[in-house]
Design goal:
The protein has about 290 residues and is an alpha/beta fold. The chain is built from 9 helices and 7 strands, in the order E-H-E-E-H-H-E-E-E-H-E-H-H-H-H-H. Strands 1, 2, 3, 4, 5, 6 and 7 form a 7-stranded mixed β-sheet that branches. The radius of gyration is 22 Å and the shape is elongated. About 35% of the residues are buried.
Length: about 290
């Protein structure tokens, strides 16, 4: 359990993963498969984001899947309508109560990872957002979740009146974990491939080790997976295993890169927020409920 302060989403992605892996910040290692940390909070000074999906070998189809998986247009429209209701004259000008939105539920064993978010305004934080997640795989899936929340806040801000550069984000995580499948790829993205290579040599040649050389069980598993998958091509039976390895080959120029998916160009396809706001604000639809908000 810890609280971490970050400049923006890029800073948070690398800062959290580096802390867990290199500073042994995790609470539990499950065999050689995952390492976990529980009940954490990240505070982002802004929601700006320079991460791009193609850098971790995702295509635009992943973006469309996220929209369909998480976003309910009516929930989004109602949230914005409520924010506008307060911003346009109800209550104090320096305070807008936190308005929430639920993400869609999933019909699987463990349920959705992203649960909900709120947006509000107060004199202490200015515009702020709270994100609640049940579980986050940090090296690949959370990377895309960060992009998703960034674009969502950017589009909400266009309607309500803020930008991703002036909204603070509090991200509450019940469970975070790193997966052995993509852990070596994160270390490489963090600019530390040499760390993998040098420790691999020491693992394979015990006579070269100094008396103070030591790896945690999770670090050792990551180095071994780097050798087996990224250098020798094992563990490629499933798409989730091939994705980070292929990203590595693309980085090395040994595999053709896929079409770029720039975050700055992403939108919410087939969702017109202003239209959803008009629907939610129409008294005939009674979205707020008689006598106040539902």
């Amino acid at each position: 359990m810890f609280r971490m302060r970050c400049k923006n989403f890029d800073d948070g992605y690398f800062k959290l993963n580096n802390y867990l892996f290199f500073n042994i910040g995790y609470d539990m290692v499950r065999g050689t498969v995952t390492s976990h940390s529980f009940h954490d909070e990240l505070i982002f000074e802004t929601a700006s984001c320079g991460l791009n999906m193609h850098d971790i070998n995702y295509t635009i189809s992943k973006w469309k899947m996220l929209i369909n998986l998480y976003l309910d247009p009516k929930e989004l429209g109602l949230m914005c309508a409520r924010l506008l209701h307060y911003r346009n004259g109800k209550g104090h000008k320096d305070y807008i109560p936190d308005i929430g939105m639920q993400f869609k539920k999933r019909r699987n064993v463990s349920g959705s990872c992203l649960m909900s978010m709120t947006v509000g305004f107060n004199p202490t934080d200015g515009w702020h957002c709270e994100v609640f997640s049940r579980a986050s795989e940090l090296t690949m899936r959370w990377y895309v979740d960060l992009i998703f929340v960034h674009v969502l806040l950017r589009e909400i801000g266009k309607v309500v009146g803020f930008t991703v550069n002036n909204i603070k984000v509090y991200w509450h995580m019940v469970s975070t974990y790193q997966s052995i499948t993509s852990m070596p790829w994160f270390v490489i993205m963090a600019g530390k491939e040499e760390w993998l290579c040098s420790n691999l040599e020491l693992l394979n040649n015990p006579t070269l080790r100094t008396h103070d050389w030591e790896l945690t069980k999770w670090q050792e598993a990551t180095v071994k997976r780097f050798e087996k998958t990224y250098l020798k091509g094992d563990y490629q039976n499933f798409k989730v295993q091939r994705r980070p390895m292929e990203a590595y080959l693309m980085l090395k120029g040994e595999m053709e890169r896929k079409d770029p998916v720039w975050t700055k160009d992403l939108t919410l396809p087939d969702i017109d927020i202003n239209q959803e706001v008009d629907f939610a604000s129409d008294p005939e639809n009674d979205c707020f409920g008689k006598g106040g908000y539902r």
